[in-house]
Amino acid sequence: MNNMTSKYMSAQATTSDTVVVSRPIVKGTTNIMNRKSRNKRLGLIVSYVILIVAVLFAVYPVYFAFLVSIRPNGQLLSLNLSDMFLPSTGISFDSYNTVMFGKQPFFSWLGNSLVIALSTAFASVLIATSAAFTISRFKFRGRNALLIMFLAIQAFPGVLALNAITNLLTKLGLYGNPLGLILAYSAGTLVFSTWNLKGYFDTIPVEIEESALIDGCNAFQSFFLVLLPLSLPAVAITAFFGFLAGWGEFALASAIIPAPAVRQTLPVALQALSASTSVPWGLFAAASMIVAIPTMVMFYLMQNNLQAGLTAGGVKG
Asked: What is the architecture of the domain spanning 104-312?
């Protein structure tokens, strides 16, 4: 009986001791979890604040250009602080009307830029696809040296080659011709386009093409019907950057097609709108809003493939 009593008392003591000891542990664990939860919420709030500031920093210049374009007199700055955020002086679309339907051949400039940008995108995809496929799939002497040379060319500033490009196009009879400008832009995008497509081709197993050959496809059918559809994200990003290269560039366009005005691209032609004594900020702002529309349309049409094309192209080198 005494033994049973002593065992019961020792078990009760052990249980009570365990309970007494475990309470601080549970309380400490709860404090740690609460502290982690607070730190997580604080970190989330800080992240959102940083993102909001970054978005405002990126969006406000575009919004400010829009405000300038709809101000009655095309005024760049205002002494009224509220006018820097809301059009308190009134809204006018005279700048848009003057840019599009004034004395300047705006739609001719727009058409020239669209033709050159779309042609550059097509040429970039056509040239870079074949070059990237060859480098990715075939092992030949000088392959690594060729890739290193591509990087060296990319590191060379394109502006320094402006004189050489204009002299070469003059010898070819393409100076002052949009075709010469398209060739210059396509050559400028060749390095990035080739590297990006080459990295994407490296991620596609060769066995897929071999299976197509076994099923009866020839080499061209295997390339066009199997490999290219699988490489659509990389092709899309290559075309997009080719379009950007031919759409907003100024230095080459002003040097290769200096005249006549009706054959110039939008960046070059709009620069000529400014007089020697004044700058029509309203016209520039309205034109910048119009010029941004094709780029946004291209981005909207290709947005599903842009992220995959940028990320997957850098998996293998």
From this structure: Orthogonal Bundle (1.10)
